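Notes, p. 3: input format for complexes.
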Amino acid sequence: MALLETRRLSKSFGGLRAIHDLDIDVEAGTIHGLIGPNGSGKSTFFNLVSGVYPPDPGSSITFAGTDVTKSPPHAIAKLGMARTFQLLRLFSEMTVLQNVMVGYHTHVPYSLLGTLVNSPRTRRIDARITEEMSELLEIIGLAEYADMPAAELSGGQRRLLALGRAMATRPKLLMLDEPAAGLSPVNVDNLLSIVMALKDRYGLTLLIVEHILKVVMDTCDRVTVLDHGEKIGEGSPTEVKDDPAVVEAYLGQEMDDEEVRQAMQA
Ligand SMILES: Nc1ncnc2c1ncn2[C@@H]1O[C@H](COP(=O)(O)OP(=O)(O)O)[C@@H](O)[C@H]1O
Ligand SMILES: [Mg+2]
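Output follows (266 residues plus adenosine-5'-diphosphate):
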């Protein structure tokens, strides 16, 4: 069984079918790409499987062997699903380390730590958390900025911090919504190599939503292509890239030549 399975997943906003009858399997240990033109339903898919929006009746979502079709976000997070958002959400005044810790504490029963303050057990757990968080900061390349306020990081570094915070919960599945948007090519490459390092280190499964085809070509094992909320293609990155329906969907949208070239470039 796949780590994440949707069957007949649908979501309408008023008369608009944002997602329609979508069957997707994200296999454990893989990097799965979800691509498609603007407005094709990629972010909505994330919001559905993470429990932010209730899906339409008849839909089914299974995560880590559990039916989560009607589960709230915190219950799904607890099963091991984490995500980043298209818009950055960080605590600017808090340090880099504290931002990552926030991610951790949404996962660990810190109330337990609170009642055991200064007991040997708490100190052991604290030492372990600090060690784990340091390793994480090391992998995302922010170790030297641990005590710096998040506000002082560059745009590229803030993106990495958001990634670190999502990773702090030790998820089974990490979902990234347009992680490369607005980054310079150098920062995109850096981000992708960090994503690969996290996958190797933590045995992570990833679902990456991207508008830019090149990003998924370089990283994904399998790609699903959405257009107007429906699956119009699926396969290896190469299969998908050569699929006429996919090319058509990308060319059909209102982009100038340069944008089409960038989106298709692999
Ligand atoms: N909360 C919402 N209310 C109404 N319409 C929405 C909402 N979220 C998304 N949509 C609509 O659903 C469609 C898919 O949007 P979205 O999932 O954000 O696309 P993508 O992430 O692929 O660009 C769009 O037409 C969008 O306007
Ligand atoms: Mg989106």
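DSSP finds eleven helices and ten strands in the chain.
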